[in-house]
Amino acid sequence: MEHRIYVVFGVSLTDPSKYGTRIFKDLLAADYHVYAVNPKGGELFGKTVYTCLADVPEQVYGAILVVPPAVLDNAVTQCVACGVKQIYFQPGARDPQAYQKAVDAGIETIESCFMAENGLW
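The structure corresponding to this sequence follows.
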């Protein structure tokens, strides 16, 4: 996993208790190569928060989606366009159409908590 680059969609710039922010912070602490995406952009924990996946300066292997169902389609569309290979649909981030879009694009789709699956929580 150390060679893989991940992105977390749904990082909150204002609420550190939100799961997207907690995941991003804990992945940084575990020395993961990780980026954050939030349409507002900005900075968090000394790292740039990108407004969209296309702005991330490296090819991303996997995406961790911690967003409400209403914005999942947009996140998956960005992942498809940027060649993401794997998507974790976190608990609460469920939308059958967005999930099917990822499957149809050949992306490995996982409906589970990234942190629990990888022994980080």
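The CA atoms of residues 7 and 88 lie 10 Å apart.
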